[in-house]
Amino acid sequence: MLAIKLMRTGAKKSPSYRIVVKEKQSKRDGAYLENLGTYNPTRNPAEINLNLDRVNYWIEKGAQPTDTVSRLIKASAKAQAATATAEA
Q1: Which of 2, 6, 40, 85 is the most buried (most CB within 10 A)?
Q2: Cα–Cα distance for residue pair 35/20, rounded to 1 Å
Q3: What string of pLDDT tens digits covers the 88 residues of the chain?
Q4: Which fold has domain 2-87?
């Protein structure tokens, strides 16, 4: 079973994360199938870079996002919608 999870990167006490698709039972920082984006909580406001097309593709294929990742997906979609209406 596939999951969309956070994979920790960055230095000690300065975390940043990759949002990746991986097997549900694999280790937190183990091998992954695809990198979907990044999340940097140390910035103010937190920086989320996410490829929503690929996220939707993997969700259609049966990958289940964790609770935190689903919250990040919603925030990213909301931010993209806001920029799209600002440009129009």
Answers
A1: 6
A2: 5
A3: 999 999 999 999 999 999 999 999 988 889 999 999 999 999 999 999 999 999 999 999 999 999 999 999 999 999 888 888 887 6
A4: S16 Ribosomal Protein; Chain: A; (3.30.1320)
Residue 45: asked if its preceding bond is cis (omega within 30°), the reply is yes
Report the distance separating Cα 25 and Cα 10, nearest Å: 23
Distance, in Å, from the CA atom of 76 to the CA atom of 47, rounded to the nearest integer, reads 9
22: tokens are 């991986």
